[in-house]
Amino acid sequence: MRRDIWDSLFTHDARPHTKILTVPIRERPAEAEDRAIPGHWEGDLLAGANDTNIDTLVERHSRFTMLVKLARRDSATVVAALAKAIGTLPEELRRSLTWDQGKEMARHKSFTIATDLQVYFCDPRSPWQRGSNENTNGLLRQYFPRSTNLSQVSQDQLDAVALQLNQRPRKTLNFETPADRLQKVLQ
User: Fold this and answer.
1) Considering the domain boundaries, does residue 60 fall inside one?
2) Residue-wise pLDDT tens for the chain (187 aa)?
3) Is 18 within the bounds of a domain?
4) Which residue numbers delimit the Integrase catalytic domain (predicted)?
């Protein structure tokens, strides 16, 4: 019997774990690292009660936030919802997306083909490599505590929360709002 199958019998895991082939964060362009050019995004899932989730996207240059309602956490649902959200953005705001090692982006190649947006993945257990997104998720916990059933939150409610976050002055932006910073870029 193969070793990985044998081991899975003792961990009560019916399937052996497989590694998703990813593009590591160290291959991300330098312009994304120093936040000089807009269009580089960080993404993650915000988990709620009863295995409910929303997608959070934060633009690295302006800290502009987009929230996307998810019906399920599987890769097909997440990729379709992200592709729809990214598709609404102007071309100059679609350069790259940085994600964690979660299996929800297992179909990242189909996402890249659909949106022409390269996906880079952080190193395992390295949330600081997506610092803006982790900070935003902390701010979102003021609106959606862990006990919140996110399936009962509508996309309109998510848009209202994103609007509040995008109109909130940030010290890191010299007390500009993310919406103002993004507007300057688009002019």
Assistant:
1) yes
2) 666 665 666 655 555 555 556 788 888 888 888 888 999 999 999 999 999 999 999 999 999 999 999 999 898 999 999 999 999 999 999 999 988 888 887 888 888 888 889 999 988 888 888 888 899 999 999 999 999 999 999 999 999 999 999 999 999 999 999 999 999 988 8
3) no
4) 25-186
Alpha-carbon gap, residue 128 to 136, rounded angstroms: 12
In a domain, residue 19? The reply is: no
Structural domain harbouring 102: 24-186
Q: Give the global pTM.
A: 0.84
Task: Say which residues have a Cβ less than 8 Å from residue 18's Cβ, sequence separation at least 6.
Answer: none
N-to-C CA span, the chain? 63
Measured over all CA atoms, what is the biggest interatomic distance in the chain, rounded to whole angstroms? 63
List, in order, residues 6 or more apart from 142 with CB less than 8 Å away.
none
Task: Examine residue 74 and state whether it is found in any structural domain, yes or no.
Answer: yes
Number of domains making up the chain = 1
